[in-house]
Write a structure and sequence with these properties.
heterodimer; A: alpha+beta; Rossmann fold
């Protein structure tokens, strides 16, 4: 799947002018509410018409204002999941699920109902009506309904925003399964950093109707940009290598080395993503001795940038994985840090995309 | 019906037939126009609304006269319908049904328009993204969701038909067994001395039928609303 978007649209008090593309996987549109993310979701689904521009999916032109092409929503085969679910109140859960499948029957490439129902854990809801479902259940049915139409792209517009944390934790694993097992290309609209870090392969940051940065997630989050208001962090995909039950610790392997963290409920072989915030990483020029910090990784400084009036942001190459560190300008000068210099990264804490113990 | 004379029973059954036909046949065009007024974005929307609502404010005699001009045997529409479909309205019960339908139309359209406007557009959008063409969206989402309004409109149209007098008597006159509906029968009896008992009987009958129709529509609409809410 490939997606190319280049559109602009003006409404009273709001202009949107964005261009981005995606080779597939999960692309997150990230930004504050009112930034224009949901409008982009509507443009992809065909519910909003742009003033100018083009949208291409897999090379097929869905919108091109210059030559007057506008493919209506029902012929796009782009599944949509909305914040408010939008289940049909007069139909049962089963009828809701099969609604899109009926129209998509000619494509016949979709998964059977039983598979989707099992994937989303909604077996017991099939005979019920939407009004009797909880918020989390409604969203799982809405996701199932979109999947059963055999979409080539799934657009999720803040699907978890209306839910509390417990319900979010209930649904996120299902979205991970869509990404990892069905390999379904997704555009995921969200203003929640933890959801985005957990799900997205690529990040498009939207602010006031414009793309302010875009790229692979680890690259975008590791940029130091004080104006963006979000702190820099490295995103690592790791595998649980071993569990030290005696000390309650787990070893996590990633291409650049290994980390030791509290084991919590982790199991050997489990894959997960974690974030290491720039502020939680300190720098030593030699290998420190007599330190309680468990995670000390050798790395090379890639580049340095001002990260505020008194701070310096470092990007470090740790065996191919990029780590970020934020230290004072004074320390940087005292240690004579410069790009290319080998250092040790001292990782004070690691935050998981999901709590390892609770 | 033992308590009615044959002539009165004839007026009663004619009224039911005229009411049923006018309500049922005006429903599909009323749904189409209500949808246009609720969801359509086109020039002349206000003009359409004004034309639909005219019978509500015009003197019924004027509406009846307009029907006579248009649908009479020599009227442009009436002559065409007769030559192509053999359909005659002038001085027939079908004309009474047409007059009742035209007079009730604004009320029915209004009821339907309100219930279409109450349908969450997000649901129709969701249906479109799931592959439903606009016509399929209408029949699988919009129409089931406005079922209570549909039924209310049907019964409202029926109840309104039972009371139609001015346009009917102007358009199709007062022919026993053909166009003499309940209100026209009551009016006719009032012209004759010594018919007080008959007038009262027919008036009470009118009240009873109207009450049953309105009450029934409330009852069914409430059940449908509950079902639509998913209980």
């Amino acid at each position: 799947m490939s997606l190319a978007v280049e559109i602009s649209l003006a409404r009273p008090g709001f202009t949107l002018d964005v261009a981005f593309d995606s080779p597939g996987g999960v692309t997150a549109l990230f930004g504050r509410s009112g930034a224009g993310k949901s409008t982009i979701a509507g443009l992809l689904a065909g519910l909003v018409r742009p003033d100018r521009g083009r949208i291409l999916v897999d090379g097929e032109v869905l919108v091109d204002r210059a030559v007057g092409i506008f493919v209506p929503p029902h012929r796009r085969r782009i599944g949509s999941v909305f914040q408010d679910g939008r289940l049909f109140p007069h139909l049962t859960v089963r009828q809701n699920l099969l609604y899109g499948a009926w129209f998509a029957r000619r494509h016949a490439s979709g998964k059977p109902l039983d598979d989707i129902v099992e994937l989303l854990g909604i077996e017991r809801l099939l005979a019920r009506r939407p009004a009797t479902l909880s918020g989390g259940e409604k969203q799982r049915v809405a996701i199932g309904r979109a999947l059963l139409m055999a979409p080539r792209l799934l657009v999720l517009d803040e699907p978890l925003a209306a839910l509390d944390q417990a319900r979010k934790d209930e649904i996120l694993p299902y979205l991970e399964r869509l990404r990892d097992e069905m390999r379904l290309p997704m555009v995921y609209v969200s203003h929640a950093r933890d959801e985005v870090v957990r799900l997205a392969d690529r990040l498009v940051v939207i602010e006031a109707g414009r793309v302010v940065s875009a790229g692979p997630i680890g690259e975008v989050t590791s940029r130091f940009d004080p104006a963006a208001g979000s702190e820099a962090a490295a995103v690592l995909a790791v595998t649980v290598g071993a569990i030290d039950a005696g000390h309650g610790l787990a070893t996590l392997d990633f291409p650049g080395g290994r980390l030791t963290v509290p084991a919590g409920r982790l199991v050997v072989g489990q894959r997960l993503r974690l974030q290491i915030r720039a502020r939680d990483v300190a720098i030593a020029t030699g290998r420190p001795e007599g330190l309680s910090i468990l995670n000390i990784l050798p790395a090379t400084i890639l580049d340095m940038a001002a990260a505020g009036p008194t701070a310096v942001g470092l990007r470090l190459d740790c065996g191919g994985t990029v780590l970020v560190a934020e230290i004072t300008r004074l320390s940087a000068e005292a240690l004579a840090l410069a790009p290319g210099r080998p250092v040790h990264a001292l990782i004070k804490s690691v935050s998981f995309d999901r709590p390892p113990a609770d | 019906m033992p308590f009615l004379t044959p002539l009165e029973a004839e007026a009663f059954s004619l009224s039911l037939r005229v009411g049923a036909w006018s309500a049922v046949t005006s429903l599909p065009p009323a749904v189409a126009i209500a949808w246009l007024l609720a969801r359509g974005r086109f020039r002349g929307r206000t003009l359409l609304s004004v034309i639909i609502h005219l019978p509500l404010v015009l003197p019924p005699v004027v509406t009846g006269y307009a029907l006579l001009l248009l649908f009479g045997r020599h009227g442009p529409i009436g002559a065409w319908l007769e030559s192509w479909f053999g359909l005659v309205f002038a001085f027939r019960w079908t004309g009474a049904a047409l007059a009742a339908a035209v007079m009730g139309f604004p009320l029915v359209v209004r009821a339907l328009q309100l219930s279409i406007e109450a349908v969450e557009p997000g649901l129709e959008q969701a249906a479109a993204t799931l592959g439903a063409r606009p016509i399929a969206v209408f029949f699988t989402v919009t129409l089931p969701l406005i079922a209570p309004g549909l039924l209310a409109g049907l019964l409202l149209g029926f109840a309104k038909s039972l009371g139609e007098f001015g346009a009917t008597i102007t358009f199709v006159s007062n022919i026993p067994g053909e166009t003499r509906t309940l209100p026209i029968a009551i009016y006719t009896l009032l012209q004759v001395p010594g018919t007080d008992a008959a007038v009262l009987r027919l008036s009470l009958l009118s009240v009873a039928v109207s009450v049953v129709a309105v009450f029934g529509s409330e009852l069914v609409a409430r059940r449908l609303r509950r079902r639509a809410a998913g209980a």
